[in-house]
Amino acid sequence: MALKTSLLVYLLIFFLVTSVVSAISKPRVGVIPRTRSKGVLPSKSSITTSKEEDRKTFYYTQTLDHFNYKPDSFTTFQQKYIINSRYWGGANTSSPIFVYLGVEGPIEGDIDYILDDYAPIFNAFLVYIEHRYYGESVPFGSWKKAYSNATTLGYFNSAQALADCAELIVSLKNNLSAETSPVIVVGGSYGGMLASWFRLKYPHIAIGALASSAPILDTDNILPEDYYYKIVSKDFEEVSKSCYDTIQQSWSIIDSHEKNGLPFLTQKFKTCNPLNTSSELKDYLEAIYCEAAQYDYDLPPNAYPVNRICDAIDGLSKGTDILTRIVAGAVAYRGEQSCYDIDKYNHPTDQSSLGWAWQICTDMLSSYGRTRNNTMFQISPFDLHKYIKGCQDTYGVSFTPRPHRTAIEFGGHNIRLALQKFGSNIIFSNGLRDPYSGGGVLENISDSVVALPTTNGTHCMDLQPANDQYDPIWLVEQRTSEIKIMKGWIREYNKMLKQENSDRRKGSQGDAVVPSWFLLTIVFIIVKTWIF
Ligand SMILES: *[C@@H]1O[C@H](CO)[C@@H](O)[C@H](O)[C@H]1NC(C)=O
Ligand SMILES: *[C@@H]1O[C@H](CO)[C@@H](O)[C@H](O)[C@H]1NC(C)=O
Ligand SMILES: *[C@@H]1O[C@H](CO)[C@@H](O)[C@H](O)[C@H]1NC(C)=O
Ligand SMILES: *[C@@H]1O[C@H](CO)[C@@H](O)[C@H](O)[C@H]1NC(C)=O
Ligand SMILES: *[C@@H]1O[C@H](CO)[C@@H](O)[C@H](O)[C@H]1NC(C)=O
Ligand SMILES: *[C@@H]1O[C@H](CO)[C@@H](O)[C@H](O)[C@H]1NC(C)=O
Ligand SMILES: *[C@@H]1O[C@H](CO)[C@@H](O)[C@H](O)[C@H]1NC(C)=O
């Protein structure tokens, strides 16, 4: 009985959650494409050879709710983290601790990035922290329980996730007797947002943050809602104007088959399940184009997907109809298959996507739409009411999204004014061909809150491990700048630490000496007594 009920709840959630996921077609803010497996970089000729055996996995008993003292708040869960101390210079040296802030997925997905390269360069200690509600780091004993309903999901938000990292880092430093070692937080995409926010919220724990492809301005209508799709369109237009035009013209042709041509479209696009609406096909194609633009770099086996899609679309002989070209583009992106599962784009059901569905109804709520005919996509304005209804259908009618909350919690409006005096030691790196770069910080804000944009870069490229074979020179330069800037932070911190220690020593010597006011008072009393 109990099992049956929970299964029902589970299925219900499962079904409803997907309605929110499909509300937007843009890819999650992930470091790598969700549809591509990891470890595809061939012959990694990177500068380090960090091995699996250098990494050790631990579980930290984490506080469920950092912001309340209600009995429930003291519930704990096991948070997974992975360390690599092979190259560490040790506590009480100037060697830093790099902390990679995990994103929407199991932490294993985050360990093959740049930190391995940093370890020997900085003699660094590496820590990777899994984000709560993802991977194994779920409260209430199981993923299913944790995702039961809005009550159990309620502890799932960015502020709690940052507090997790703060508590874990402090505990770890204590255990290593490394209280004074400098900590730098690193993250990409959503993790980049977390990294920059961590530095602002916990400046006493991290001396700096490397925030790669972090669209921190993508909240509370700070940006026009079409910014993401405009950059996707620009990427396609730059590769081929005729490809852009073909895609732009295709939507109304697909629509014209809505009434009685769905079997035709199903057959033409070889979808595994029959299409129920033309929107399913359009959402799928949109998702492909967005993903291609977001990860448009030389990463075999799917190198430069925008070029590949456009080469296929443009490559057919003159007079070929538009739909046939669009099919060729989709096949070029996904490879020859007997049929195409489009559900994984339209209704993803993996755990990370379901977690992300909660996040886009809470902290990651932002508007995505097209209000004008200025992209290669159809006009489709963002509808907040529909969006909120999707969240409520999933999480209950009492669930009320708070569209302004993230900007209030972390800032966003007038970011320049806020960060110029108040912030320091943050690198915002971006690739301008990444659609999310439109939500990033692209200008230097102060001497130490700096932007490192690259014209031809895409999403989180600088966080990929160095690869002599594939890395363009501007990417090498971007990474070199990041290292130089971070070395500067560490140098400055260690200088200040030394200064403070010597001040403290002087200060404590001073305390031992009898204060002069005391001596003067004694003299005064003696003199007074002597006179009278
Ligand atoms: C939410 O799920 C938990 C765990 O499955 C359950 O104990 C609780 O009663 C549920 N709450 C609501 C309001 O449905
Ligand atoms: C630090 O040590 C304490 C006591 O052994 C332990 O409970 C805690 O989990 C450790 N912290 C981390 C981050 O591993
Ligand atoms: C580092 O210095 C602190 C304070 O001087 C000391 O308590 C700690 O034991 C030192 N750690 C190591 C590993 O030497
Ligand atoms: C059509 O609807 C059915 C039932 O909801 C679903 O299983 C199927 O995946 C849908 N087809 C496509 C192509 O999405
Ligand atoms: C949008 O612009 C394109 C090209 O300029 C044109 O072909 C298309 O019909 C326009 N769509 C709408 C809805 O105006
Ligand atoms: C910001 O300053 C750094 C030097 O600190 C420089 O390398 C970088 O090009 C500047 N960024 C922009 C967008 O001007
Ligand atoms: C960017 O790529 C284009 C096309 O390959 C090339 O012409 C241009 O020089 C590149 N720009 C930079 C800054 O590398």
From TrEMBL:
Q: Does the keyword Glycoprotein apply?
A: yes
Against Pfam families, the record matches this protein to:
Peptidase_S28
Question: What is one process in the GO biological process aspect for this record?
Answer: proteolysis
Source superkingdom: Eukaryota
Leader peptide range in chain numbering? 1-23
GO MF annotations in UniProt: dipeptidyl-peptidase activity; serine-type exopeptidase activity
The alphabetical list of record keywords is:
Glycoprotein, Hydrolase, Protease, Signal
The record's family statement is: Belongs to the peptidase S28 family.
Q: What is this protein called in UniProt?
A: Serine carboxypeptidase S28 family protein
Which species is this UniProt entry from? Answer: Aquilegia coerulea (Rocky mountain columbine)
